[in-house]
Amino acid sequence: MQVIRIAGKTISSEDKPFIIAELSGNHQQDFAIAKEMIKQAAEAGVDAIKLQSYTADSMTLDTDKEGFVINEGSNLWQGRNLHSLYAEAATPYEWHEALFSYANSLGLIAFSSPFDKDAVDMLEDLNVPCYKIASFENNDLPLIECIAKTGKPIILSTGMASLAEIDEAMRTIRAQGNQQIILLKCTSTYPASAQNTNLATIPHMQQSFDCLVGLSDHTLGIGVSVASMVMGACVIEKHFVLDRNAGGVDAAFSLEPGELKSLVTECNSAKLALGEVRYGGTAAEEQSKMYRRSIYVSCDIKAGDILTSQNLKIVRPGLGMPPKYWEVVQGRKAIKDLDKGTPLSWELFS
């Protein structure tokens, strides 16, 4: 069994799912909102919070030339200039230490997605326990190599990456001697649809890359995340917001606190429900066995009377002979008086 440990937390196919609340830019550049998000995430029961570490200049160029303005009719950020969008969504670097410390004080693991080497250096100074590589950066092999050299666990979103591109990223990480990798199945549309999520890819990824696999879920609601437990997901990442109606760059596909709590509860339940192959009932079901059907005396019988369907009946509870002996007992003779409600047993007839 593969096991990865992050800040004392064990992640494996056997453990409860490791659930990450992604703050992204939903703090709306308000430090108090960012702290409240962390507080609410802790109360919801997640394992970790994640930031994104970049500046607008580290993400893109400040220009309106073709390609630098979003021009997709279905895109959540249609018409937005990339530079201004990233400036709005960025988490100031000077917040990181305070937010990480606050999260840790609430028992949460705190880390981030760096988008360039400077962000990695900053996060190393803050001694983060692991790194996340965003789906749009999974082809940035120099960045991936830089992160791999830290020797810390890496959570890598696959997004639009082909099998070959994922293999390149995995080889880049492993070439640095780093084997602590968790891949996340991810659909890079915002929001993503259930039919485009393709959870069946999760076990294929596990087999193809011999590593743990989870889900970065951009769908609405929690159903897809819960379903991923069946496919073997060990990590769930979901975007989080205090109030969708109050706005935030990712608010439209982010979970509110009550929904996040339900995510934690239902994913844990789904994981437990997988259990093992078992027939014949569990120990917890043992007492319920008495309420199965069995053969009972249905009216008073005198010694010497013949047992028939007129004086016997298959009913609950299950304290008499199993129904499979129904034909066997027909025509047998009672060896003593039997009251109505007597469970039939072999010693009561000849």
TrEMBL record:
Documented EC number(s): 2.5.1.56
PANTHER family associated with the record: N-ACETYLNEURAMINATE SYNTHASE (PTHR42966), PSEUDAMINIC ACID SYNTHASE (PTHR42966:SF2)
The entry's keywords: Transferase
Pfam families: NeuB, SAF
Residue ranges of domain AFP-like in the record: 294-350
GO terms assigned for molecular function: N-acetylneuraminate synthase activity; N-acylneuraminate-9-phosphate synthase activity
Gene3D superfamilies: Aldolase class I (3.20.20.70), Antifreeze-like/N-acetylneuraminic acid synthase C-terminal domain (3.90.1210.10)
Listed InterPro entries: AFP_Neu5c_C_sf, Aldolase_TIM, PseI-like, PseI/NeuA/B-like_N, Pseudaminic_synth_PseI, SAF, SAF_AFP_Neu5Ac, SAF_PseI/NeuA/NeuB
Gene Ontology process terms (BP): carbohydrate biosynthetic process
Signal peptide range: none
Record's protein name: N-acetylneuraminate synthase
Top-tier EC class: transferase
Superkingdom in the source lineage: Bacteria
Top-level taxonomy: Bacteria, Pseudomonadati, Pseudomonadota, Gammaproteobacteria, Alteromonadales
